[in-house]
Design goal:
Length: about 375
């Protein structure tokens, strides 16, 4: 059996950020990090700009797991699957043995949502959520010309932009009627759509794939409304769902994610969660900034300085070179109206209550420079 003071499950941005913060505060702490993948250190958000820059998966690796282990003076177990948590004995069973912990942190991330698609699409539908996914999709794209992206949210639009810039013929299929429907009002969505169309991206709004037929190297997709298109490869980017299986098996309270309080403590003693898998006071925020803030707060808590996480307004920056986009959407239940100022590609949109309170905003083009000013006009998400 292996013993450690702090055990971190997950080697993504959340897991590594916490390990770094802990090491700053406690030079001698016994830290172990286990990961189901290679545990190499890289920036996942950069993957959606990789095709246009002709990058291989190896090009994204900033440091190997061995280099990170040396730099942080921690034990890293790559290709190690955490299988079961014993909350009473403070033990985690893995495929490489049992680990005894004093503190356990779940940073298990999220996985792509998988759609039920016609049988003919089997083997042609891929998602990119990590380095291995990127390499697989890159290999599948070799020699192909037509790629279809499912989903027009943040990841779908970033990849549509990147793939089109890399020279592929890109089609986007989405149930919505515009790109980034959760982030942009229709006016700004139209501006972004036109810029992507200028790159050659075709959009099929308001319908799903109903049928598919494979003929040679081409796949004929038929939508529920009767429209059809040909493709050679499909990138599914319809969303992510937190990885909750390990937590649920251990009896931890889960909702949209693993439920934690403001100190990121779960319902089980000495177990914490952060990152894409965590639901913090009702929020499941799958972005870099809240993860970084969570890591700093949790490191303090784990070293004896109980610290409640604080989330300011954190505008979402979309990596779409065709048009700069920044947004902070209002909460779904908030009532208000959009107002606009700008022209051409440069727009500032405010979502305000009847009393004039700023509830959300969206910016394009040169107006993205206003994001910090607007963020300061709004109350913190979690003060």
């Amino acid at each position: 059996m292996t013993y450690c003071h702090t055990l971190i499950i997950g080697a993504g941005h959340a897991g590594y950020s916490l390990a770094k913060e802990l090491r700053k505060l406690d030079p001698n702490r016994n830290i172990c990090l286990v990961s189901s993948d290679s545990a190499d250190y890289y920036s996942k958000p950069l993957l959606s700009n990789g095709f246009s820059k002709q990058k291989s998966a190896a090009d994204f690796i900033q440091k190997t797991a061995a280099q990170m282990a040396d730099e942080l003076n921690i034990a890293i177990w790559p290709h190690c699957q955490a299988e079961q948590i014993d909350t009473e004995l403070h033990q985690v069973q893995t495929n490489k043995g049992t680990i005894q912990y004093q503190q356990l942190v779940l940073a298990t991330g999220a996985s792509p949502v998988k759609l039920a698609l016609p049988p003919a699409t089997e083997g042609l539908v891929w998602s990119v959520n990590d380095l291995a996914d990127y390499q697989n999709f890159l290999q599948q794209s070799q020699g192909k010309q037509k790629i279809t992206v499912l989903g027009a949210g943040l990841v779908g639009i970033e990849y549509a932009n990147d793939l089109a810039a890399a020279g592929f013929q890109v089609s986007v299929i989405a149930l919505e009627q515009q790109p980034l429907a959760q982030l942009l009002p229709p006016l700004l969505g139209d501006v972004l759509q036109q810029q992507l169309k200028n790159l050659g991206v075709e959009f099929y709004w308001g319908s799903a794939i109903a049928d598919a037929e494979l003929t040679g190297q081409h796949l004929r997709l038929t939508l529920a409304d009767g429209r059809s298109l040909d493709t050679e490869l499909i990138l599914s980017a319809v969303g992510l769902k937190p990885n909750l299986q390990l937590a649920m098996q251990a009896g931890l309270d889960c909702g949209k994610g693993i439920k934690v309080n403001r100190t990121l403590a779960t319902s089980a003693t000495d177990i914490y969660a952060l990152g894409d898998c965590a639901e913090v006071c009702g929020y499941n925020l799958m972005y870099i900034q809240p993860i970084s803030l969570s890591a700093k707060a949790l490191a303090l808590t784990l070293t004896g300085q109980s610290s409640a996480v604080q989330f300011p307004v954190m505008p979402v920056i979309v990596k779409s070179p065709a048009l700069s986009v920044v947004s902070w959407p209002a909460a779904p239940q908030q009532q208000g109206e959009w107002s606009f100022e700008g022209h051409g590609l440069d727009w500032l949109a405010r979502f305000q209550s009847q009393s004039g309170q700023l509830l959300g905003f969206a910016l394009t083009g040169k107006m993205v420079a206003q994001r910090l000013r607007l963020a300061k006009e709004m109350p913190a998400l979690i003060a």
